[in-house]
Amino acid sequence: MPFLGTALNTAGLLFLTHAVYSTHEHTATFAHTPLPLDITIELLVSILILSAGIVVSSPQLKPIQWAKWAGKIQRGGRHSEGKWTREGEEVLSEGDPYAFLGLDGGIGGKGEGRRGFWDVRGKRKEYAHWAKTGGKQ
Amino acid sequence: MAFTATMSEERELAIHPIVQTSVQHNTQVVSNIRNLTASLFGVAAGTLGLESYPGFIFYLVGTLIVSGLIFAFRTEGKPSEYFHRPFGDLWGGDVFSGLSSFVLTWTLFYGLVRA
Question: Which segments does the entry list as coiled coil (chain A) (predicted)?
Answer without folding.
Answer: none
